[in-house]
């Protein structure tokens, strides 16, 4: 049974890695629903947030394949109840319709969106929230005949656990490195 999974990948910022990661999905003929890549809270580490519809067995295999890439630090998959996720959307509306139909402004306020720019030709509305909320607002505004353009970001997500798995991994890796460095130093002094 297919469901939406979010894969969070931490990696070094290396050219070509995005292509390697997306190739894993392509080989298995899995469509990527959304993709967001940005610097993470850890210096020198980037975070990929990828969503895809698939089954539990396939997502596990995909995540393992991504983890094997040389420049990937870690990759984990999550269901929606294991993460807090968010998107942002921009709606370009016809200003004259916005001014003539008060229900447009009412829908914008009701959905928790905000108008960020108004000029004589078009107005820009911004909505932050869950994917469903963004889609619902788009459908309502389209029903009122005022949408010129619509764009949404990829999902951004953080885990709901109290710790970031990659932080623990990097700390453990640094500890092992320091221990092996100390061992080499000790071995050198004994010879």
Description of the structure:
The protein has 191 residues and is of the alpha+beta class. It has 2 domains: 76 residues, 2-Layer Sandwich (Alpha-Beta Plaits); 67 residues, ACT-like. Chain A, domain 2 (Alpha-Beta Plaits), CATH 3.30.70.1150. It is built from 6 helices and 9 strands. Strands 5, 6, 7, 8 and 9 form a 5-stranded antiparallel beta sheet that branches. The protein has a 4-stranded antiparallel beta sheet with strand order 2-3-1-4, with helices on both faces. A hairpin with a 3-residue loop joins strand 6 and strand 7. The longest helix has 26 residues. The radius of gyration is 22 Å and the shape is elongated. The termini are far apart. The model has no long low-confidence stretch (mean pLDDT 87).
Going by helix content, strand content and strand pairing, the class is: alpha+beta
How many helices? The count is 6
CATH class of the largest domain: Alpha Beta
The overall average pLDDT, rounded, is: 87
CATH architecture of the largest domain: 2-Layer Sandwich
- Outline the biggest β-sheet: 5 strands, antiparallel
Q: Topology of this structure?
A:
Elements (H helix, E strand, L loop, with lengths): L2 E10 L4 H11 L4 E8 L5 E10 L1 H12 L4 E7 L4 E12 H6 L1 H9 L3 E5 L3 E8 L1 H13 L3 E6 L3 E4 L5 H26 L1
């Amino acid at each position: 049974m297919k469901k939406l999974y979010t894969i969070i990948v931490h990696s070094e910022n290396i050219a070509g890695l995005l292509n390697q990661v997306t190739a894993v999905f392509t080989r298995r003929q899995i469509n990527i629903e959304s993709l967001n890549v940005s610097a993470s809270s850890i210096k020198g580490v980037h975070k990929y947030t990828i969503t895809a519809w698939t089954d539990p067995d396939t997502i596990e295999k995909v995540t393992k394949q991504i983890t094997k890439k040389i420049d990937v630090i870690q990759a984990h998959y999550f269901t929606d109840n294991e993460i807090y996720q968010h998107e942002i959307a921009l709606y370009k509306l016809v200003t004259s319709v916005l001014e003539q139909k008060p229900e447009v402004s009412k829908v914008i306020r009701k959905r928790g969106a905000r108008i960020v720019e108004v000029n004589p030709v078009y107005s820009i509305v911004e909505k932050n929230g869950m994917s469903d909320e963004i889609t619902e607002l788009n459908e309502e505004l389209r029903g009122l005949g005022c949408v010129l353009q619509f764009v949404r970001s990829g999902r951004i997500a953080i885990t709901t656990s109290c710790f970031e798995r990659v932080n623990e991994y990097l700390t453990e890796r640094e500890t092992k490195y320091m221990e092996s460095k100390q061992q080499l130093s000790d071995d050198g002094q004994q010879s």
